[in-house]
């Protein structure tokens, strides 16, 4: 099964996606994480996409699609994956359907749409800090969920980092970009697949509701 985490930045796609990934034994793939790694490593791809990301714009579809299709052919995602931040446009959604058909996969795509009011999103994002250890990736919030020791991850002890694009100006741009595409994406999944929309106010309850939905959709 491919679980598609839809939602504006800061709605909890990463946090919830990682919990679902553990509970369902499916790899968590975040296009944002892949791109940030490429930028840190200063690869050719990293240099090509850096400007889009720091300005809160979408990376062009052909670049994203090629990156994801390559990743989805790896062995550890043979049985599906949790896709966090992909697809973000209708073209990417169509490409994912084609990829599944072409590779003779019978997997279902199920979309989970997370909706949170914008002002709450901005508060979440400007205070967000993430563990720099890629394998951990724990997310904290200096206002609502601070780490026990400032700048240090409670889970693995690595340093915490603030994302360069997590500032109010870029967040507002990223929100506008998200809303430009979200309507047609949601419509696409309503028409072609299954979609569950939720305001994840309480994290544990949201995960419970999503897992219940996924069980129902699979039975
Ligand atoms: P995220 O970590 O999901 O917030 O993504 C960070 C940034 O990476 C976004 O603001 C975009 O610039 C870029 N990005 C991530 N996923 C995609 C995608 N599916 N399509 C286009 N750009 C993307």
Features:
alpha/beta; Rossmann fold; 5-stranded parallel beta sheet; 8 strands; globular; binds adenosine monophosphate
Count of beta strands: 8
Number of helices: 8
Provide the CATH architecture.
Answer: 3-Layer(aba) Sandwich
- Major sheet, described briefly? 5 strands, parallel
Strand content: 15-25%
Ligands bound here? Answer: adenosine monophosphate
N→C terminal distance? 13 Å
Shape: globular
Helix-strand string: EHEHHHEHEHEEEHEH
Taking pLDDT < 50 over at least 5 consecutive residues as the criterion, the unreliable ranges are: none
The secondary structure category is alpha/beta
CATH superfamily: P-loop containing nucleotide triphosphate hydrolases
Please identify the top-level CATH class.
Answer: Alpha Beta
CATH topology: Rossmann fold
Cα-based radius of gyration, to the nearest Å: 17 Å
State the share of residues found in helices, binned by percent. 40-55%
What count of domains describes the coordinates? 1
Average of pLDDT: 93
The order of strands across the largest sheet is 2-3-1-4-8
What does this structure look like?
This protein has 8 helices and 8 strands, in the order E-H-E-H-H-H-E-H-E-H-E-E-E-H-E-H. It has 219 residues and is an alpha/beta fold. The protein has a single domain, classed as Rossmann fold (3-Layer(aba) Sandwich), CATH 3.40.50. The strands form 2 sheets. It has a 5-stranded parallel sheet, sandwiched between helices. Helix 2 packs across helix 3 and helix 4 runs parallel beside helix 5. The mean pLDDT is 93. It binds adenosine monophosphate. Adenosine monophosphate is lined by residues 9, 30-32, 35, 52-53, 56-59, 64, 85-88, 92, 174.
């Amino acid at each position: 099964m491919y679980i598609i985490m839809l939602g504006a930045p800061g709605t909890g796609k990463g946090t919830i996606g990682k919990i679902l990934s553990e509970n369902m034994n499916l790899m968590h793939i975040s296009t944002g994480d892949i791109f940030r790694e490429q930028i840190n490593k200063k690869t050719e791809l990293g240099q090509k996409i850096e400007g889009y990301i720091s300005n809160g714009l979408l990376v062009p579809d052909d670049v994203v699609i090629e990156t994801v299709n390559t990743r989805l052919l790896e062995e550890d995602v043979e049985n599906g994956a949790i896709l966090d931040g992909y697809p973000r446009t209708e073209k990417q959604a169509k490409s994912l359907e084609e990829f599944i058909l072409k590779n003779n996969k019978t997997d279902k795509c199920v979309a989970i749409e997370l909706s949170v009011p914008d002002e709450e999103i901005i508060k979440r994002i400007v205070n967000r800090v993430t563990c720099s250890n890629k394998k951990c990736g724990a997310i904290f919030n200096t206002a609502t969920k601070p780490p026990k020791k400032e700048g240090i991850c409670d889970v693995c002890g690595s340093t915490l980092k603030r994302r360069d694009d997590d500032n109010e100006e870029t967040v507002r741009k990223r929100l506008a970009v998200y809303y430009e595409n979200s309507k047609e994406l949601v419509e696409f999944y309503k028409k072609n697949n299954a979609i569950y929309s939720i305001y994840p106010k309480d994290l544990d309850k949201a995960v419970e509701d999503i897992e219940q939905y996924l069980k129902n959709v699979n039975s």
